[in-house]
Amino acid sequence: MRTIASAMIVAAMLCCAGTNVVWAQATAQISGTVRDASGAVLPGVQVTATQTDIGTSRGTLTNETGFYALPNLPLGPYKVEASLVGFRTFAQTGIVLQVGSNPVVDVRMEVGQVAQVVEVQADVATIETRSVGVGTVIETQRVVDLPLNARQVTDLITLSGLAVRTGSSPGYNMDTGVNISVAGGTSYSVQYNLDGASHLDMYVGTNMPLPFPDALQEFKVVTSAQDASSGGHSAAAVNAVTKSGGNQLHGDVFWFLRNAAANARDAFAPKNDQLKRNQFGGTVGGALKKDKMFFFVGYQGTTTRQTPLDTTAFVPSIAMRSGDFSAYINPANGCPSAAAVRNIADGSGKLIFALSPAAVEISKRLPQSTDPCGRVSTGNPLHENRLQVPARLDYQLSERQTLFARYMVTRIQTKVPYDIRPNDVLTSTGYGADDTAQSLAFGHTYVFSPKLVNSVHISGNRVGANKLPAKYFGPADVGIKNLFGYIPQFTAMTGAGFSLGLPANFAISTTAMTNFGVNDDVTVVRGSHQFAVGASMNRGLLFTRSNAWAPGVMIFTGAIPNVGAIPGLGTPIVGTGAAITDFLTGRITSLHQANPNPENLTQNYFAAYLQDTWKATRKLTLNYGLRWSPFLPMQFTDGNVYTFSLDNFYKGVQSKVIPSAPPGFSYPGDPGFHGNSGMESQWKNLEPRVGIAWDPAGDGKTAIRLGAGIAHDFIRMDLHENTSSVAPFRLTVTPSVVSLDNPFPNGSPFPYNFDSARPTFPSEPLYQGFFPIPPDLKTTEQYSWNFGIQRQVTPSLFVSGTYVGTHLIHTWSAVDLNPGLFIPGNCVAGQYGLTSSGPCTQSNNVNQRRLLQLTNPNAAKVNTLGSMEQLDDGGTMRYNGLLSNAR
């Protein structure tokens, strides 16, 4: 008993010393019951499992019921031997342990001499009687053999039968992985683990890059009610394992080629996809010291070159740049917007409006066209190089101790399309990348005794993503005054028949995401019980700076109404009726500019569990446990966070920290504000799990399984992508109908800098958008249950059918706290922002009809409050599915 207590103390110390949220299954176990020829159980039998490819072994004795268990075994091929004085030695080969598997190897011993060996060469039944969840193993042969587009291992996750891919990493982050919904869970509710350690990109909720197929041993997708030892995200866990070396030197070399020259074009495409992709590399693994130290290393390089299918854009032709639209408006040429342009051209086809000097200068830098409509072909070429290098070292320190270390780096380098085609400035809509993902894991397993095993994993993940803009010309280079550009040599506009810089501006960013942690698991076998206890701690760090609206995005629509005088454009002003002529005459329909939006966050994660697997009878196994997984909210290092209370708004309660803010706002330092997060911690997240497995015949060939459990999810860090991007921390302006030559005639409000020492809430612009998050927002809670029947029909045929049910509560949606109200009837000019008499409710007076201003018009700066989209956790989801399997 002292040994058990000491082990528990050691485990607790290890957990508290480190800083993920899950104890991943990168191991497996073997268990069973030993009987004699008459069927009577045999206690005291020596059972040994030997990993045949590296020669290491683990042994134990059967208890008084003849039961034995060998937990935390490395994956691979095994031979099981059982010996007892007076009986022949039993030996069984053909046992292959897969990730998270629990094969039952029952032994029947015959009377005889120990030196006599009864050897069995047969596959072990794959019936699962000891776990709660529904799992599918994608073993190494399928990983390597199945055709995969670009050899992406994550494409195989959908083979679990309950999974649907819903998306991938967003453009502003590194292409680390995918979003997958499993068994009705949310798209970010999959926990990824590699070699027993967390393998998550916590910024966007995808996986970190997984090893390429030749370097991946296998992985297992587990969903529905899971063991208490499994946690983190609530819907499913993907437990993957990198390959290891063995006593024999082994490896491979590969090269995969995809070339458009061998491809037919799509049915409606003018030419084939122009894709050239080469994927090449190899692996090698072996022993540095026989039976002791093993290595494995791999390399995969991918080069992709693609000249895209041409897309059509319309730019001002040489004639148009002088105001001559005679060819453009000729009906024979069929130019877009020709009818509208005829209304603003004289008899000779000349525009009646003066041209914008800035527009003319920009037009000179666009691709030149002699087409009467200004038609040109363009497209962003792709020039991308990727590499991945995984490396692993395993060391059998002694019969009791094993160590491993694994490091993997993935690089993506993409050239800026404009650098490839510098004569086509329209390629500025694309961007380049210089991204690196790194993952590191250490593992230590110590066998205190055959019935007491401790396993520790320390891990770290880091993503550095740098999205690179094209450098062509800035606003000042073409004569645009008073437009500050946060991105050097970059101008963003769209709608005038062509685009510059858009949508690249939404991706151009710098990101650094880091998470590191430790998890510890202790397994204790006592009689027919197998206890497991563990805990984990993790810390996440995020710093990003993106430039969504930072360059100032100019939008031309050709839909400018008669709006009166505009500085620099004369009076009265009317739209030209066409976007291309609005551009040439310098009429911006709308301009959207804001500070770069940052995220500077930290978050801590903690969880603990207790679990028991009890073989109650020869035919019945129970698995039950409890997991504690509190939610600790993200902290804003710079304190750029806020909350909004409708109750305080109507009571006129204003912030003590920023007194000039409208009532209802609170900031760090205000009474009742939660630290630097604004959200409450949720300490009561308890997650019970229970499962029952019944083997009707007791022969290990049939199992009737029932499981149920509760799990809580945690929030992706990009939840706060826009939290710090609002007043007073940042400034957003969206003026309508401004001059291209001088968008801010009274001076640009940028660069805008928030002074935290003397904070002030700006009174302009009016009707700004906000994205408040309620302090008591609940994380998603998932209830899962399953019922299944498994049958090993023959040694080579396994069939199963499983019903899976899921019910989610606290799913999120957005609720506008300040919607525009419908005002019935007609109103006169001046009411609700109307410039002339007409219906009170119109599309152009939404802001003047907003709820908060109408219901509390005397509140301070109420007219600065526009849309206020707040998250709401009142949603629910249900899922029911049937998974059938035969192999």
Question: Could you list the spans in which at least 5 consecutive residues all have pLDDT below 50?
Answer: 1-24, 562-567
The helix content, as a percent range, equals under 10%
Class from secondary-structure proportions: mainly beta
Query: Could you state the oligomeric state of the chains shown?
Result: single chain
Structure commentary:
It is a single chain. The protein is built from eight helices and 48 strands. The chain is mainly β and 887 residues long. The radius of gyration is 33 Å and the shape is elongated.
List keywords for this structure.
8 helices, mainly beta, disordered N terminus, about 900 residues
Give the secondary structure arrangement, pairings included.
Layout (H helix, E strand, L loop, with lengths): L1 H16 L10 E9 L9 E6 L5 E5 L5 E7 L2 E8 L5 E9 L9 E3 L7 E5 L12 E5 L1 H6 L17 E6 L9 E5 L7 E5 L2 E2 L1 E2 L4 E2 L8 E8 L12 E7 L7 E10 L15 E15 L3 E14 L4 E4 L23 H5 L14 H9 L9 E4 L3 E15 L4 E14 L2 H4 L11 E18 L2 E17 L23 E3 L14 E18 L2 E18 L6 E3 L8 E3 L3 E4 L5 H6 L2 E8 L2 E18 L5 E9 L6 E2 L6 E2 L1 H6 L13 E2 L19 E9 L7 E11 L19 E2 L2 E4 L28 E3 L10 E14 L2 E20 L9 E2 L10 E2 L11 H5 L9 E22 L1
Parallel strand pairs: 1-7, 6-8, 12-17, 27-30, 43-48
Antiparallel strand pairs: 1-4, 2-3, 2-5, 5-6, 9-16, 10-11, 12-13, 14-15, 16-17, 18-19, 19-20, 20-23, 21-22, 23-24, 24-25, 25-26, 26-28, 28-29, 29-34, 30-33, 31-32, 33-41, 33-42, 34-35, 34-36, 35-39, 37-38, 39-40, 40-44, 44-45, 45-48, 46-47
